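Milestone M4 deliverable, item 7.
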Amino acid sequence: MSSPIPRAWAKLADELAHRSALPLTDHGGDVAAVFAQLVAQGHWQRLLNRAAERELGAHDVARLCVLAYLHDLGKANRGFWLRQFPGARLVGHTRETAPLLRTDLRQRPEVAPLVAMLRD
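Output delivered:
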């Protein structure tokens, strides 16, 4: 059996009993970088501007890049981490972070750093 992946992971690959993982932080960075490149293209800029009903500035795009980076934040939970082991209970990663979007939770001190990062 392979050694456990010691940190939060986004993607696992098993080949001939060798396990490798893409760390969650690397995956978030990859997605944010691709998103930033797409948004720099005129077509995608126009689509986002239309969706926002205004022209998005650099600050808006930076915020969207942060959200792209955080899109799999829910994978940083013990239940999801345990999925690397055969027979582990299936635990997702969406429902686990959805409460962060609730207005009343945004006021909690433990969520304040995330909210501040999105606001700045």
